[in-house]
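Why does this matter for the project? Reviewers at the last site visit asked to see concrete outputs rather than summary tables. In response, this paragraph embeds two records directly. Each consists of the residue sequence and, immediately after it, the corresponding structure tokens. Nothing has been edited or filtered.
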Amino acid sequence: MLAAACLCAAVAPAQAGVMDFLFGGSEKAADASKSGARRRSWSLHEFTTIRLVPRESGAAPNQHPVQLETEALRQQLAQVRFVVGSGTQALFAADELGELVEPLLEAFANATPDEDLLLLSTSRRGAGLLSQPLGITARLFVQGGQLQLLVNDARYEFVNEYKGTGKAPQFTFGSRSKAGPVALRSAAGSNQRPDWLVVSTAMPAAPSVATPVAPSVAPSVAPAAAPKTVAPAPAAAAATSAPALRPRDPGYAEEVEQRLLTLKRLRERGLISEEEFQQKRREILQTL
């Protein structure tokens, strides 16, 4: 389904933000005016936001609200790739996921069975400060105990044109009824459609490591008069008793540092409480 829109861009005080085009300024203001109202939108920065919207017409109810694990969601999304030419590329950058995971967890916990999550995430993804930020547009929901990810745009160019003309772009967030142009891949998921990926809400399984088998040794028969001897166990058998260690990604320490900095920014912006900050900080440090 096509959603006319954009995120909250501060081009001029008199000009409406992109989020107002996307979701409607009156609805946004109404949410903010209600004391204790259930939160339905998370604007992380210019051109990056998460929003709860009514689920698509005719779709089965979602399994919301749902509590997802921080590290499980991060690792599952980190494995999502999209097809580019004859190869693939990671859909999300590590620092991008560092910003998105906590708000996504809160959105899933706040959602009702009648709501989907819309995601617009815009980032340069390591391309350099002079490069144009590119957008990801996606729809997410949980059904059948699994996370459903529908991506319409993997690298949408709209920022420069919007800033130059002030004209709000058109965003499509993926739909159950209409396939988008992106082809997704994940070693930890399966495809409902090329643009529709189904992944577990649990931690992805570690790659299996084959255990070497020690060669069998035929028993030797000693002469009757000779003393009975016992051959030492093959060295290969002893080596297999030690558990295989899973190697760390070379960029893992940098990724953990980025996640801690992102968590700190979320606390400073009031998006999470001090108690939530300390809890998530402990969870991140325990992965070291």
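We now turn to the second protein, recorded in exactly the same manner.
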Amino acid sequence: MSFSTDVKNEVARIEGEPQNCEKAELFGLLRISGSVSLRGKNLGIHFTTENAALARRVLQLLKIILSCRQRC
């Protein structure tokens, strides 16, 4: 396994961080391997990775952040 795969797997296992840390983590991952587009009131997210654990982590972070936004 490569070093970058090891790091991505480690990042994907991080849990229980405060909400601001989760936002920072998501935006950092999107900055590295994705993009965010705004068109009027529509938001688009494109994320590319070969690491399944990292893809699951991005989805998990999106769910956490968006669900909190609806409740808060």
